[in-house]
Each structure stands twice: as structure tokens, then as C-alpha cells.
Design brief:
- With 380 residues, the protein is α/β, with parallel strands linked by helices.
- β2, α6 and β3 form a beta-alpha-beta unit.
- α9 crosses α10, α10 runs parallel beside α12 and α14 runs antiparallel to α18.
Length: 380
């Protein structure tokens, strides 16, 4: 009996990326210009018959495609051009058995026969609602023959047909296809937007969080909200519902900001031994040398943008960490930062070819720790 209950409890879990997937335009995160344009097109009845959604993974292409499909067939749109969720069309969509919306994954269905099946469906008028919507994901994966078979239908579709194509690689799509579509370029989700979204979910799920920890999750996701939600679920399981900065960096194997602040301080003091010992400590904890170089370069970049009030907004870190950056930026010379970034760039370029990678990075740290002393000699 206990085992059965455990299995039922496990089967009821829904990952955050699915549980909190936006269902309306207003609930979409970080793509305000696109959702506003689509809502205006719907309200003014200026809908194109073919859309192309371009952007990296996890930024909302398929989500907005589904919301658009649901909205244009709703019988009772509200004042904000959002679906009512009560009419026959909305109900069938929400329950997953709408015959007016067909989705095709071109990554695994990319042949001429697959497109011919779509073309056959295009001829059939919708049973409920005004439009029949065809969502083709990863459309760049279609074969050349499939693209050619699709061209005529895309150029002269029946009035009831709307095509929504989604791709992560716009450059692979034929110009003849691009010319027939209204193109929307999705941008990566900002760190701040991701953090606020994770905070809102944490409140709903009664999960304790620290802003510093959520910022690390957002930065690690690299602008993909779906990735951020997957990492969030992982950290929740690891930390037993208490997301702190320490639990996040431990689970994701991320270097603490403090290491980079110490390295710069040692370098400003021309303390070569201190930096070598600190780098040894980093290696002992199992961190990757390549990630260390990238992290240190990013740290110097952050110090550079902190030197001027007009560019501080480019710093995407928690307020507590931002204060540390602002304080250290006042002590660091501009020339020191520029030479340091150039040194790290060269190190990164030659990293793969190096046979002794530890020594390669250690030499970089020796040179980095000697920069201030060399600059002062030149001034004399």
C-alpha cells in the first residue's frame, strides 16, 4: 500500500516548465513587443496567414504560437484581446482535443509525405471556429523537397488556414519561405525577468529563496526560461525547498563570486603566491580551468562597466553583489582592467592547444598579478 501511494504521489508531479506555461498573452515573460503586435493584429483583424517565429530555445516560440492559435478562434475575446477559456473552441483547446490546431515537429517529420499530409489537412475547413492553424516546429529541419512541396500552399493558402512556423536557425530557411511569412525575432529572456518569474513561482509553491541564488539560476539558463525552470526544479529537490546561494553554487558547480574578488585584490597587491594558492584551492574543489578563465574575464568586464554610472545597468547581478563590484571598481585602474581582459582573451584562445592546462592558467595568473607593478614602472 505504501509503495502504491508513493507511485501515485510521484506521478502527480508536473515540472514547472509545464505547470506554469503561459496560457495568455499577458502571462508571457519577456516578449512584450511581440505579444502586443499580435494582439493588435487580432483586434484590428489584420492577421497574416503565415508567421515565422525565430529565436533560441526556451524563449516562448511554441508557447506564443499556441496562445495565438487559441486566441484567434475564441468566440468571446475580452477587452484585452485574451481568450475567454469558456467557449467551445477554448474548451476543446484546453482539453487537448481541438481539431482546428495541428502541430508538426519537423525535426522528426521532415519528409515530402509529411508535408503532403499537412497540405491535405489544409483543404478541410475548420469544424469549430474561424481558422485552422498549423504549427510547424523546427521548420528548418524540413528537407529541400518538403520545402518545395510546401511553397505553393504557403503562397496561396485558403482563407481559413494560418501557418505558424518556429525555428532556432532562421538562416537555414529558404528565402522563398521567408518572403511569404511575417517574421518575429524572439530575444533571450533578461536575467531580471527570469528572477521575478522564479520568485512568483516560489511564492505559489511555498519555497524559500534567496535573490542571489535565483540570479545564479537565471544566469546559468543563458536567457532560456525553460532551462531556468528545469534548473529551479533541480535545486528545489536538492535543497528540500530552501533555495539559497550556497545550495545553488554547490549543485550547479558554479564558482563563488568571492573567488574572483579575491583574485583581483591579490593582483592589485602584486601577490602572485596568493593567487596561485587560491587557484589551487579552486582546482581542489573540482572546478574546470576553462570555466575559471571565462568567469574571471566576466568579472573584469563587470568591474569595467561599474566604473561609469551610465553603464552600471549592464551589470546583471544581485544588489548585494553589485555593491561589492562598485566598491572594487573604485580601486582598480582602467588600464589594469583592459590589459587583464586582453591577457585572458589570449589565454582562452591558446587554452585548447596547451598540453599542460594548469601551468597555462598559472602563467596567466602570474602575468595578471604583475600588471599593476609593470604599469607603475612605466609611469616612473
Amino acid at each position: 500500500m505504501y509503495i502504491c501511494r508513493s507511485i501515485i504521489a510521484m506521478s502527480n508531479f508536473v515540472v514547472s516548465a509545464r505547470k506554469y506555461r503561459p496560457q495568455t498573452f499577458n502571462s508571457v515573460i519577456g516578449q512584450g513587443s511581440i505579444t502586443t503586435t499580435l494582439k493588435n493584429a487580432i483586434s484590428k483583424n489584420h492577421l497574416a496567414q503565415a508567421f515565422l517565429f525565430c529565436g533560441s530555445r526556451g524563449v516562448g516560440k511554441t508557447t506564443i504560437a499556441r496562445i495565438l492559435a487559441k486566441t484567434i478562434n475564441c468566440y468571446n475575446l475580452d477587452e484585452q484581446t485574451e481568450p475567454c477559456n469558456n467557449c467551445e473552441s477554448c474548451t476543446s483547446f484546453n482539453e487537448g482535443h481541438s481539431f482546428n490546431i495541428l502541430e508538426l515537429d519537423a525535426a522528426s517529420n521532415n519528409s515530402v509525405d509529411d508535408i503532403r499530409n499537412v497540405i491535405d489537412q489544409v483543404r478541410i475547413a475548420p469544424q469549430v471556429g474561424k481558422y485552422k492553424i498549423f504549427i510547424i516546429d523546427e521548420v528548418h529541419m524540413l528537407s529541400s523537397a518538403a520545402f518545395n512541396a510546401f511553397l505553393k500552399t504557403l503562397e496561396e493558402p485558403p482563407e481559413h488556414a494560418i501557418f505558424i512556423l518556429a525555428t532556432t536557425e532562421k538562416h537555414k530557411i529558404l528565402p522563398t519561405i521567408l518572403s511569404r511569412c511575417q517574421i518575429f525575432d524572439f530575444h533571450r529572456i533578461k536575467v531580471e525577468d527570469t528572477v521575478n518569474h522564479l520568485k512568483a513561482i516560489a511564492v505559489k509553491e511555498n519555497i524559500k529563496t534567496e535573490d542571489k541564488g535565483l540570479h545564479i539560476i537565471a544566469q546559468k539558463s543563458d536567457g532560456a526560461l525553460r532551462d531556468a525552470l528545469s534548473i529551479f526544479d533541480q535545486i528545489v529537490s536538492f535543497s528540500n525547498g530552501n533555495i539559497t546561494y550556497d545550495t545553488v553554487i554547490e549543485n550547479l558547480n558554479v564558482l563563488d563570486y568571492d573567488y574572483f574578488f579575491k583574485i583581483v585584490n591579490f593582483a592589485m597587491d602584486s601577490n602572485i603566491n596568493g593567487n596561485l594558492l587560491l587557484f589551487n584551492d579552486i582546482l581542489q574543489k573540482g572546478f574546470d580551468t576553462s570555466s575559471f578563465i571565462t568567469g574571471l574575464a566576466e568579472h573584469l568586464r563587470n568591474l569595467l562597466v561599474c566604473r561609469d554610472e551610465s553603464s552600471v545597468s549592464l551589470l546583471e547581478v544581485p544588489d548585494e553583489i553589485k555593491a561589492n563590484y562598485l566598491e572594487q571598481a573604485k580601486k582598480v585602474d582602467l588600464q589594469f582592467l583592459l590589459l587583464g581582459l586582453d591577457l585572458l582573451r589570449e589565454t582562452e584562445i591558446n587554452f585548447k592547444a596547451s598540453k599542460n592546462k594548469r601551468l597555462h592558467v598559472e602563467i596567466t595568473l602570474m602575468k595578471f598579478s604583475s600588471l599593476k607593478a609593470n604599469l607603475e614602472k612605466k609611469k616612473i
